[in-house]
Automatic annotation (TrEMBL):
Its main location: cytoplasm. This is Phenylalanine--tRNA ligase alpha subunit. GO terms for molecular function: ATP binding; catalytic activity, acting on a protein; magnesium ion binding; phenylalanine-tRNA ligase activity; transferase activity; tRNA binding. It comes from Brevibacillus borstelensis AK1. Its EC number is 6.1.1.20.
Length: 344
């Protein structure tokens, strides 16, 4: 039996050294050391040995078992190391290669226009005021000279949450809130950027949600000429130093007198073209002198102070400045469109 043990040991060690993968190694482990393996079969034959031979053979069996287990463990470690080395070689990285650039985002064109407009008016001494997008009817309409039964409410088809709460249809409520906070003190000189909502069919020039920037100045001795001068300065800084503006009579419930403001067509210089529909002018915003009733409701004496207000659509300004023909481009998040406005 001792001879058989030695032969089995030498045969097993030789086979272990030739193993090429983990599956073969496991098969050999079961073959020699498993419950039905060759070493186990030899142990079962020890009952036929004489009492003198059993200790000698038992010691030899333990030595063979230890040698095989050590060989199996060593081979297992060698196979795992070779597998790791092969994996690293197949996934090697050349650290000297230049990195792949990660595309960086860019400021949205509407955000750029808002920032540009804010910078212009901050330079003129205006502060920036904000207010809630979900507004009370009281501030959205009544404080702006639009009582419950006023027909001009039909000009702004609204999203109502309840009879007294709605999505604001303009940023003018911020003006009313600001004047109330001032408690009749002057001067008031603010612009109010923000989103507004109206029930409108979305098309190339209309959207149910868009962005407005409204301005308000209240102080002693404010005149229509101050309004025109402010808007002319804005137009020249936004669209070029040679720009001209034109005020046309209009109607807004919260201003009196009211005026639509036109910009000289930047495409044809006032000569007339397809962009300005051959008129030489492009409408950009509405404006006017603050209605005395609005001043009174906000706590001001219209005999002592006056003011002007204006409101512009940011998308309208952006479309004119960048030559965009469809307002929906600003909301569809097409990267090809947005990349055109990258500052870099």
């Amino acid at each position: 039996m001792q001879t058989r043990l030695q032969e089995m040991k030498q045969s097993a060690l030789a086979q272990i050294s030739q193993v090429a993968d983990g599956a073969q190694l496991q098969e050999l482990r079961v073959k020699y050391l498993g419950k039905k393996g060759e070493l186990t079969e030899l142990l079962r034959g020890m009952g036929s040995l004489s009492p003198e031979e059993r200790p000698v053979v038992g010691q030899l069996v333990n030595e063979v078992r230890s040698a095989l287990e050590e060989a199996f463990a060593g081979k297992q470690a060698a196979l795992e190391e070779a597998q790791l080395a092969a994996k690293l070689a197949s996934q090697s990285v050349d650290v000297t290669l230049p990195g792949r650039p990660i595309p960086a985002g860019t400021m949205h064109p509407l955000s750029r226009i808002i920032e540009e407009i804010e910078d212009i008016f901050i330079g003129l001494g205006f502060d920036i005021a904000e207010g809630p997008e979900v507004e009370l009817d009281h501030f959205n309409f009544e404080m702006l000279n639009l009582p419950k039964d006023h027909p001009a409410r039909d000009m702004q088809d609204s999203f109502y949450v309840t009879e007294e709460i709605l999505m604001r249809t303009h940023t003018s409520p911020v003006q009313a809130r600001t004047m109330l906070k001032k408690e009749g003190k002057t001067p008031v000189k603010i612009i109010c950027p923000g989103k507004v909502y109206r029930r409108d069919d979305d098309d190339a020039t209309h959207s149910h949600q868009f962005t407005q920037i409204e301005g308000l100045v209240v102080d002693k001795g404010i005149r229509m000429s101050d309004l025109k001068g402010t808007l002319l300065t804005f137009a020249r800084q936004m669209f070029g130093p040679n720009q001209q503006v034109r005020l046309r009579p209009s109607f807004f419930p919260f201003t009196e007198p009211s005026a639509e403001v036109d910009l000289q067509c930047f495409k044809c210089g006032g000569e007339g073209c397809r962009v300005c529909k051959q008129t030489g002018w492009i409408e950009i915003l509405g404006s006017g002198m603050v209605h005395p009733r609005v001043l009174e409701m906000a706590g001001y004496d219209p005999q002592e102070v006056s003011g002007f207000a204006f409101g512009m659509g940011v998308e309208r300004i952006a479309m004119l400045k960048y030559g965009v023909e469809d307002i929906r481009h600003f909301y569809t998040n097409d990267v090809r469109f947005l990349k055109q406005f990258n500052r870099s």
